[in-house]
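Run folding on both entries below.
>entry_1
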Amino acid sequence: MLPASDPATLVEAVAILRQGGLVVFPTDTVYGVGAHAFLPQAVERLYIVKERPRDKAIPLLLGSASDVEQVARDVPALAFTLMERFWPGGLTIVLWARPHVPDIVTAGGGSVAVRLPDHAVPRTLAAALGAPLAATSANLSGQPSPRTAAEAASDLSGRVELIIDGGPCPGGVESTVVDLTKQPPVIARLGAISAEELSGWLRAAR
């Protein structure tokens, strides 16, 4: 376990991710565990380490909002409106995936979930990597999502190459997921952003 405050920690984390390793890191919602999104063998390890069902796609954390079009196609105007209002922050948006996004990330489906976290660590990692992070909560599947590095370590210590300790996550609640591949758009999971906060924007799209 290494501190997020040390710049050398992030350099080491990027090197690990480039080599197909897994890194645990803080976000604005809960601690996440991530892999290089474009290395299928790394994402495969993510499923194994988390004991995650293979039919559950893995979201992508971005370095900047402009990275959306690196992984998504036919992005609707509503997506950009939601990004401007809620990013960086606790909103995950499901869009149609570009063909080069690995099938293991999308669980064989045609869509991809993307988010720009309101936390410097994952954004810095993705930007330095030059690729999104395939990332999900840093716990064994079915267990509570961790708010601290120690909670993440209790599930994943010895299963990942590095745990970055950035202190308690300020949110403590997973992101809200909005699926824009459905018409009308659907709130697939409630979390950090309430239905009330989203309702006006989604009603306008109907």
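>entry_2
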Amino acid sequence: MSPRLYVNLDHVATLRQVRGATYPDVLEAALLAERSGHVDGITLHLREDRRHVQDADVERVLRGVALPFNYEMSTAEDIVQHALRMKPPQATLVPERRQELTTEGGLDLVAQAARLREVTQRLHDVGTKVSFFIAPEAQAVERSLELGADCVELHTGPWAHAHHALETAKERARLEAAAASAQATGLVLNAGHGLTTSNVGPVARLPKLVDLNIGHSIVARAVMVGLTEALREMRAAITMAAMETAPPHRGNA
């Protein structure tokens, strides 16, 4: 079975914010993605500095689109309060630094343990499932379970940015070991960051992978071919990868 594709539309908002315009509209993009039939959910990351997605984008998409919604968020109190009001079906807790271009690593599950446990419980109290964005390490998976997470999203950035055979093999092994750990603990397994149609295959083949969160490469490709076609291409790459791991069909003797 093919993993589900959640499209992250943050960078539709980036195009709007860079000029202070009213377009392109994130809700319009989400509705187009929904109508395409190529995605299973929408992801938005409301950052503390509001550099791209705005509060109203989250509210309009959550209320205006029928697809499942994944709210990427830090544990900053104003963001937590917004999430508690919105009550999204799923929230993915991610680390955040003002000076970073994009999320650079997994959560610090030791230094932030108390805060992560507290925010997770508060989100659970309003009916929101919680995922932790983590480094692809078995220890991080086990720690996420201890802190109350329902899911883990493996940070695939190091895999995506590996350039040499040895580095690629190392990162693939890390992903596979973390996936095995998630399966052993019973946590739902998701993955994302830096994925393109060229590198998504081995990630999509991880056993028991449920969701892939992919944004930048899809939005960038959409500039060239349109959002519907960009989504179709990504869906095709994921489906082809999943078919490569499917057992061969055996007809009746």
